[in-house]
UniProtKB/TrEMBL annotation:
Organism listed in the record: Paenibacillus campinasensis
Name by which UniProt lists this protein: Uncharacterized protein
Amino acid sequence: MSEHTYIFSLEELGYALAVHQGEEAAAGLMKAYYGDLPEESWELLFQAATHSLMAKGFIEQLDEEQGEVKFTPEIEQMIQHLLHSSYMLRGVKERKTSQTLTIHELRQKYLYHLSDNNVLHFLSWTEPADWGEELVRLYGADPAAAGTKLPESKAVVTEAIWNGLTSGKVSASSLPDALTPDQRQLIDKWQQNFQANGGTMDNVSILRLGRGNEMAIENILFLLPADEGMWVVRNMAADRNAEPQISIELQSGPACRKTLSAFAEELIT
């Protein structure tokens, strides 16, 4: 990652987006945290953000009477990159603290954007060689975790069984005979971890913005830490239109690092 990391508050980033004709993006960012506010409240928030950005040196020139704002060249480039990128990798972690890591691609240049509880936003230029490490750090994949002590480390189930497992309507003991006892034991362990985590998993995805600003998911992994490593859940079907084949796998720390690095590389292929 670049040596220069810029830290924005939510209000500062919202203001920076708004003055670069990114009003829609700014509104989505701000309303997710504040909800609907009267216009005078938005004005007060943005006024405070303006002075804070000036104090940080992010704004070079400000003419409030003429409504002209000039950001430093690198900040300007980053904001334009955020606004015009339509292809990205996004990692979401909801455990303990809510964090979202987005790597925005634009003309084969990549911007790292970490949102911490949607309150602080970290922006920096990044390179593909850094992404595996960044994702490992985000999800807390323990590099020392040697891997499962269970007899089996992977099981593949249908979408219907997966939906039953996640809803709690299906237990490992009632799985089809096609799965071995060792695979049932593995799935039972995953289900225990899943329920202990409130019935949720983290995820990392490759996203593409299409017409009408609709976001399409091109690929996705679901992740959940375990004592022995990291649960990795994904659709193994090569054809996206085919019946999903859901892989539930318990990976060691080093194996998870490789999985995350390989997944992130899809952004450059």
